Amino acid sequence: MTASIMTDRPAVKLGVLISGSGTNLQAIIDAILRGDLKAEVRLVISNRDGVQGLERARRHGIETRVIEHRKFRSREDFDRALLAALNERSVELVICAGFTRLLSSVMLEAFAGRIMNIHPGLSPAFPGLHAQRDALEHGVKIAGCTVFFVTAGIDVGPIIVQAAVPVLPGDDEVRLAARILQQEHRIFPHAIQLFQEGRLEIQGRTVIVKGDSTVSNSPPLVNPPAE
Ligand code: GRF
Fold it and tell me: Which of 62, 188, 204, 209 is least surrounded by CB atoms within 10 angstroms?
């Protein structure tokens, strides 16, 4: 985790949107508990009832709500319900953590530049629901994951952090997805911490990470290895 450059800023208030198992939500909670992430999860909203992510939140005493998209006539009406709940809890940054619904202009305008999502692919390659399978089918040697700011479109917003994951001989979708997921759990809290520190500046399609000088120390990843 990058050393904090603005530790006096208050904890960022998060609203986390989920649809399923919530392992990324768990990684965020764990990073907060370890002191690696200065954030507070004010509210977890699921568009599906009975999912494991809700249980994870409750176990940590975090408020949960189920807002089922099926009960709304339009995407916009559903988003208005999300927005009302998030505003009620003074949420500053919305985290889509395994949230499977596309957001409409209602949410995108209200939280412009303040919605993050994670994608199990190295954007802009392989957007959509089957990034790991698509990467394998294309024979890529390096797969990975991406945290980005949500804009209109599928997995196309300004990129904040990426992690590269080599594809290993004999990988199938399940094994590759599991190794990518481990990296998701590292980079999502990291991206949120950068936001908390006020270090993310969106310039068009690009996110400038202020005060970032460490990346040049990392050796390039070559797969298969060159030596
Ligand atoms: C993750 O691969 C995430 O990138 C994708 O959904 C998967 C499950 O996430 N959007 P989680 O366990 O519910 O956080």
Answer: 204
